Lysine-specific demethylase 2B (Xenoophorus captivus), 138 residues
Amino acid sequence: MAMSGRGNSCPLLRTLDVQWVEGLKDAQMRDLLSPPTDNRPGQLDNRSKLRNVEDLRLAGLDITDTSLCLIIRYMPLLSKLDLSYCNHVTDQSVNILTAAGTTTRDSLTDINLSGTRICELKCYLYMQNKWCQIAGYN
């Protein structure tokens, strides 16, 4: 999968669906998510072009916690994340996404973990607790 054509003309997307894209791994996710590296005259914006994505669909990809760290860093508005059938997603991945101080801890409202090695009960309990905290039921 060639990523060289990503350019700087990518609109500020709200939804990105790359489910089951063959060959899309951590290195390609880094290319997609990282801010532009070319320093063109007048190019002052060094933020990710995908910073406004709210719904990210990654089902079936061969990604690891490396990609999840990039998602946390470059997608502060993410509310829906589909990690179903991502074989390298583990309980530690959920810990990364929900760690104190991360943007995803506050922004994520919907995580699809079907077909992963995640302890689903742990995720359910986290989301229930998160809702209680948001609603003020501490």
Q: What stands out?
A: The chain has one domain: 15-31+49-135. The radius of gyration is 16 Å. The first strand starts at residue 15 and ends at 17.
